[in-house]
User: What shape does this take?
Amino acid sequence: MILLETAGQQHSAVEGSMDNAGSRDTGRLAVAVGVVAGGSAVMLGTYFVVRGPFGSINDVANAATGVLSAVLAWRLRRHIAGRRGALAVGAAGVGAAITVVGSALVVSEATGFFLAGLVSSVGFAGIGAWLVIINRSNALTAAWPRRLRSLGGLAGALMALGVVVVPGILLRFDDMATAPGWIWIGQLGWLGTYIAYPAWAIWFGIVATRQVQGVHPAGAGGGLVADS
Assistant: This one.
């Protein structure tokens, strides 16, 4: 009996170690998502000021943000139960693929930057839909700071506005100067992609890493308290 109990304890310890390693890797991945997305925004701003290769760097970083986001959604898939979870992860995966297409269009010069940006907006809208759902999932977010969940929901909602530009893609709008006003509603999604989403991802990554180290967020206040 003692041997069985010892073996069981060792098995639990191994499983716990594996869970901790997975959580730590997920946290680091989330931080990477935030850094790449934020860096992409910086590259875009730099391009408009000095031109040069920064536009292409921005395009590649957009695609990388999409792909990394899909991987993050996959790693968190078990925290959204049922069919809703599958749909959310699927939306993130499809969205990531569309962001890659958007970047490829402009890098290959198949379209101008404006039309390619509309395509990428739709891709990030899919990722935004997943972000809203994961931040409303009781299975995971009960341990998150309330402000983190609110930021994630805001970022996802802004990103989801990108779906508004779908008609513009079908009509092949590729000139910023002549684009109709309603297109700019969808362009608000970039505020989520370039500002709110990176902030959420980095914050979430820090929270996930600290949970592994025996620290967890204090729900309502948003602070962090050590386990006793």
